[in-house]
Amino acid sequence: VRCWSNIPFITMPLSRAHGKSFAHRSELKHAKRIVVKLGSAVVTRGDECGLALGRLASIVEQVSMLQNQGREMMIVTSGAVAFGKQRLRHEILLSQSVRQALHSGQSQLKDMAIPVLEARACAAAGQSGLMALYEAMFTQYSICAAQILVTNLDFHDEQKRRNLNGTLHELLRMNIVPIINTNDAVVPPPEPNSDLQGVNVISVKDNDSLAARLAVEMKTDLLIVLSDVEGLFDSPPGSDDAKLIDIFYPGDQQSVTFGTKSRVGMGGMEAKVKAALWALQGGTSVVIANGTHPKISGHVITDIVEGKKVGTFFSEVKPAGPTVEQQGEMARAGGRTLAALQPEQRAEIIYRLADLLTDQREEILLANKKDLEEAENKGRLALPLLKRLSLSTSKLNSLAIGLRQIAASSQDSVGRVIRRTRIAKDLDLEQVTVPIGVLLVIFESRPDCLPQVSALAIASGNGLLLKGGKEAAHSNQILHHLTQEALSIHGVKDAVQLVNTREEVEDLCRLDKLIDLIIPRGSSQLVRNIQKAAKGIPVMGHSEGICHVYVDTDASVEKVTRIIRDSKCEYPAACNALETLLIHRDLLRTPLFDQIIDMLRVEQVKIHAGPKFASYLTFSPSEVKSLRTEYGDLECCIEVVDTVHEAVEHIHKYGSSHTDVIITENEKTAEFFLQHVDSACVFWNASTRFSDGYRFGLGAEVGISTSRIHARGPVGIEGLLTTKWLLRGDNHVVSDFSEHGTMKYLHESLPLPQRSTS
């Protein structure tokens, strides 16, 4: 903790050699010295008279937070003209109203005309008020601000430039936020075509060029330019085909068409791009973003510094491969071509992938071995995740068998007619299955997930974006290569894309124009994060797998220990493993109960006692912290219930609607349980581990869904399809069916075409 003027603030280890800009967004969190440029449209109200106080307060809060982290913040601000315009208008109206009241009475007040106000006069009247407002806002965060007014001459005169530089460094050393603006009260009109004057000079004709010049002069790490548009588009914003450019590289100017400038202010987007490229050349990273959008303006600056995908990032380092946006477009186009193939051709691709998994077994296992060694050396993965990461010959063989099941069952998945209706004579309606579009599947430590999900996407004609964890990078790379090799036999290689860029999951979840469905495969925390981050994109999955087994009074002794052992111990890291064991109260202190406890001890399962179970014991195991816990390991909770009704209530209260089981020989009790438990999978006398797409005969699954819309339980091909309606008519119009029309609705159900049984 350092102190200045008795105000403490925390410093962060933020330092780097200046001279080269950051190559990736993820590096922006290391920025130490930051300039925030506030455009006129950000600072002013929509009527251009007065300031947008709410936005300004939010910006000051964000700048203060970063300053108190130990960063050195500077603000280049507009707004003096708008603030002065508001003050002068008020003075003129007041003056006119007094004069007219004296000479002509109140009746003419409404006809008063306000003269055009000269910008320099407005700036002179507004500077002091604008600065007073900044000072009042920064004071709320125990931060001092200082005003600096500059003109072009201050940068061209060597002595003035040194003075400015020294002043700014001294202010930063004292933990003061400099607020810089062009001295619009005296500045001459900008000269045309004087924006760029060589490598080392940029003409200060607006606050964009001022911010760039200042950023380079002060060896700033990051320049954030806030305007009233989301960033840089490849064509004027608002045009039909305009797309936001995520990363802009020097030399890309030719591919951009600039529109008109902002509603207020001196510079337009072209001026901003020129200033940004000049700053980038000087070693300062630049982001242009929207500072006016009500949903993001409250955290736009901090989001940029955290490396989130906001606005347009200027970088000198061009990635080797396509951007994730380009991959999304490739997956969309490839998916449509895939859907247009014959069913036999899609099946052929999947059969080929199954063969490659066994033919290239050694290469796959070698890549997987690298992942396992790196994970063990770094020690960053828990044992359950290491088990999920591991591949084996038997796993690959099972994968190949599952893929062949998918291929065999996919013959009539796309384009299948599920309803036919004769609306009227010669007017027939069909409802047919079609792919959802582009799927984004995010998975952790599960390289076997890649070929499974790819096969299901291929069978259902969907484009696919895959985002795997870093821990499985080598395995995922070779499995994706084999997938694309299989797709190539029918020219649809681009339909399945592996995202290898530094894209954060949260950023991927914002690509609502490219992605139609997100399917997370991983920890409950991952699923919750994705559900929270997804903006406008549906998420299929479950956040937790809290599976229950209820042992009824009429349970078979032979079945109980077998089912419990398999449910908990066969693969404890799986989402369909037993987590809570419910025991009927009458079974306590019986030989059956002792057998259950002995079996769990032999299998080295750590037992946690539920509160009711603990009350029956003199010496109980550790009491459970929460009855809503997914252990994912050789641990489980035991709780006692009095009836099957109480068991159902417990499951509804603490379960996750995944998979729940009853063990009993009483058919009536079993049927009550099956009908009343509201979970995706409910079993009688069977292990929870059967909740799986492969075991259900689906070939594989993209995941298990606990949602109540579209798909539920293990999701195979059917869950990746939606429908569309096809209407075939012959010069039909709705007016023919009116009260005095010539046609009548029939709405007759027609027989469906015979499904293929091959």
How are the SSEs placed, and which strands pair?
Blueprint: E1 2-4, E2 7-9, E3 33-38, H1 40-43, H2 53-68, E4 72-77, H3 80-103, H4 119-139, E5 144-150, H5 153-156, H6 158-173, E6 176-182, H7 207-217, E7 222-227, E8 247-248, H8 269-281, E9 285-290, H9 300-305, E10 312-314, H10 324-340, H11 343-359, H12 361-378, H13 383-389, H14 393-409, E11 417-424, E12 427-435, E13 438-443, H15 449-460, E14 463-468, H16 473-487, E15 496-498, H17 505-508, E16 517-521, H18 524-533, E17 547-551, H19 557-569, E18 578-584, H20 591-602, E19 606-609, H21 611-615, E20 635-641, H22 644-654, E21 659-663, H23 667-676, E22 681-684, E23 703-705, E24 713-715, E25 721-728, E26 748-749
Parallel strand pairs: 3-4, 3-7, 4-6, 5-6, 7-9, 8-10, 13-14, 13-16, 14-15, 17-18, 17-21, 18-20, 19-20, 21-22
Antiparallel strand pairs: 1-2, 9-10, 11-12, 11-26, 12-25, 23-24
Helix pairs in contact: 3-4, 7-8, 11-14, 11-15, 11-16, 12-16, 14-15, 19-20
How would you describe what is shown here?
- The chain has 3 domains: 25-93 and 118-187 and 201-314, Carbamate kinase (3-Layer(aba) Sandwich), CATH 3.40.1160; 324-533, Aldehyde Dehydrogenase, Chain A, domain 1 (3-Layer(aba) Sandwich), CATH 3.40.605.10; 548-701, Aldehyde Dehydrogenase, Chain A, domain 2.
- It is 37% helix and 18% strand.
- It has 23 helices and 26 strands.
- The strands form 6 sheets. Strands 5-6-4-3-7-9-10-8 form an 8-stranded mixed β-sheet, with helices on both faces.
- It is globular.
Describe this protein with a few key phrases:
758 residues, Aldehyde Dehydrogenase, Chain A, domain 1, 23 helices, disordered N terminus, single chain, Aldehyde Dehydrogenase, Chain A, domain 2, eight-stranded mixed beta sheet, Carbamate kinase, six-stranded parallel beta sheet, alpha/beta
